Amino acid sequence: EDTSCVPTFLQEAKELTELSETIQGHHALGAYSDKDESVYEQIIKILEKYQEQPHLLDPYLESLVTPLLMAVRHHRENS
């Protein structure tokens, strides 16, 4: 059976981690950028692929959500 077209979250885990860390870093420095919006869009695009297979995200949720929540909290506290 050819599984080359079967989505595996592992292929995008590193990318998502880097994107969420980018957002967290920008917010921690107070360096908001127009690029942040495109980073959020990239994150959403990747996560949308897994709406039908959310169990693939489970092992990674904490490491992905925590930096994003910290960025949102930081933004809210400084607005």
Form type: elongated
β-strand percent reads under 5%
Q: Major β-sheet, in short? A: none
Give start-end ranges of low-pLDDT stretches.
none
What is the average per-residue confidence, as pLDDT, rounded to a whole number? 77
Strand element count: 0
Distance between the termini: 53 Å
Structural class: mainly alpha
Order of helices and strands: HHH
Quaternary state of the chains: single chain
List the helices and strands and how they pair.
Blueprint: H1 10-29, H2 35-48, H3 61-77
Helix pairs in contact: 1-2, 1-3
Could you explain the architecture of this structure?
- The chain has 79 residues and is mostly helical.
- The protein is 65% helix and 0% strand.
- It contains three helices and no strands.
- It has helices at 10-29, 35-48, 61-77.
- The longest helix is centred in the first third of the chain and has 20 residues, at 10-29.
- The relative contact order is 0.18.
- The mean pLDDT is 77.
Keywords:
elongated, mainly alpha, 65% helix
Summarize, please:
The chain is an all-alpha fold.
